[in-house]
Task: structure prediction
Amino acid sequence: MNRKLIEELQSTPGVDLVAVTKKHTKSEIDELAKLGLRRFGENRVQEFLEKYDPAYEWHIIGHLQTNKVKYLMGKTALIESVDSRRLAAEIEKQAAKTGIIQPILIEIRISDDPNKTGCPLDEYPQLLEFVLRQPHLRLDGLMCIASHTEDQEKVAAEFDRMKELSRDLQTRVPRARTLSMGMSQDWRLAVQHGSNMVRIGTALFQDSGE
Ligand SMILES: *Cc1c(COP(=O)(O)O)cnc(C)c1O
Result:
């Protein structure tokens, strides 16, 4: 575990840490919990269910198939990766059935890479309208995965665009303040450009060399 990084993240004001624990075991999660972490992100439903522990707060951060949504109800504090109307409609349906209101983020495909996940920018306004009409969805904000590149300016521009979208959203929905962006490679840049939630996996599990 990279204790130094964990301490740095814990003392970064205004930024919530989601520890991404995909491909790591439940006992590694418990180790992180001992260091004070409580919020964990998983990207696959099956793997999440195997490690689920109600003592912690769980976020789903990966592309989600509609047929898996029903298994998540009541277990996930935040579904960060809502990227289509079809998925939003299924979460609405299952949340209504379970009698809960499900907090979600809309994931925006901010990178120009068509293989990346997320709602394309030109479809976002429509998805937003749809989400806001659903009584069992609570929109908390936006999420993105920036381009995977050494070009810092390109990544910074993507984060800035997200910040703008987040500001616009808050003029309509003041509660929807969450802006989830930044991973091991780019979280500092993301925080400089307005992120208030970072999702970090790889770097947490690296040795801090102490
Ligand atoms: C894996 C993953 C992360 C964490 O990535 P690292 O590079 O390991 O920090 C963040 N967000 C999503 C959606 C992921 O799938």
Notes: The chain has a mean pLDDT of 96. The two ends are 11 Å apart (CA to CA). Residues 110 and 161 are 8 Å apart (CA to CA).
